[in-house]
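Duplicate of #3305? Posting structure anyway:
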């Protein structure tokens, strides 16, 4: 599953930059990267025409390192305009056209950044633990469960249906989702059986599970994000 997607990405074997429509902006990155996904979700929500050039993060082509010497993804290029860092790119994209991904209330909008800063690192605990070569599987699972408990507590305290609204997802939801969606696939990769069904996740972390289910229904999430099965398949080859 994951290998089929990676075959379409550009790796060290890719010798030349692919042809793209130069009349629209281009995002370079990987759908397996939560930071790239932030940009792709934003582009979808706002219906912004764009090119996407997939980059093999474990084997980047030389031509990519020439146009983006840091090798970071995501990377935005639009004519002579170039940007890195996912939130910088997202906020640039948000200024290009309506609808905005931010709520209208200035205070609620400002709070969104604080929510992302609080929740996103906790959600990233899963993938960081998966990549930790020194920890045992038991230690990795234990650390992830602690992060899940904290996340569930945080979500239980949120009084709105979404992170910034009762009506629809906004900035904080989309920017946090791309790390949250990694948790269950990582635990499946670690063969932790308690996360092989939505029922078991709901029983263990009800507030978090309710939110995950809600966000999974978002049209943009469904169009852009990969399935848990594909993500788990990718994590198994890291």
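Output from current build:
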């Amino acid at each position: 599953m994951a290998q089929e997607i990676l075959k379409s990405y550009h790796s060290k074997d890719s010798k030349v930059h692919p042809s793209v429509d130069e009349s629209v902006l281009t995002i370079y990155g990987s759908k397996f990267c939560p930071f790239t996904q932030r940009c792709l979700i934003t582009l979808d929500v706002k219906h912004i025409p764009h090119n996407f050039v997939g980059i093999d993060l474990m084997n980047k082509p030389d031509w990519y390192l020439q146009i983006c010497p840091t090798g970071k993804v995501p990377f935005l290029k639009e004519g002579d305009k170039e940007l890195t860092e996912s939130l910088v790119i997202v906020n640039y994209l948000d200024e290009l056209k309506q609808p905005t991904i931010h709520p209208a209330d200035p205070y609620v909008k400002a709070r969104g950044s604080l929510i992302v800063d609080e929740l996103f690192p906790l959600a990233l605990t899963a993938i960081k633990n998966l990549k930790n070569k020194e920890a045992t599987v038991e230690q990795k699972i234990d650390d992830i469960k602690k992060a899940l408990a904290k996340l569930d507590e945080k979500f239980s305290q949120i009084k709105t249906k979404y992170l910034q609204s009762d009506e629809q997802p906004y900035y904080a939801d989309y920017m946090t989702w791309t790390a949250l969606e990694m948790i269950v696939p990582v635990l499946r990769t670690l063969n932790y059986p308690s996360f092989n069904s939505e029922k078991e996740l709901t029983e263990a972390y009800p507030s978090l599970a309710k939110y995950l289910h809600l966000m999974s229904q978002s049209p943009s999430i469904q169009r852009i994000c990969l399935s848990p099965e594909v993500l788990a398949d990718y994590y198994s080859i890291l």
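Confirmed duplicate; merging threads. The two ends are 14 Å apart (CA to CA). Residues 137-157 form the longest helix (21 residues).
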